[in-house]
Amino acid sequence: MVDTGHEDRDGQGFAVLKVLSYNLWHGRAQRELESLITTHSPDVLCVQEAYSSSLPNRLGDLVLASGTTGNRLAVALYVRSERFVVEASGKVRLSLSRHDRLVGGTEHRLVTARVNDRQTGRRLVLGSFHGTPFTDSNAFRRLQVDDAHEALRRLGPGLPTVMAGDYNHPVLLSMLRRHLKRRGFTVARTATSTFHKNRSLVRGKFDLATISGLDVSRADVLARGASDHRPVLFTFEYSG
Question: Are 95 and 129 in contact (CB under 8 A)?
Answer without folding.
Answer: no
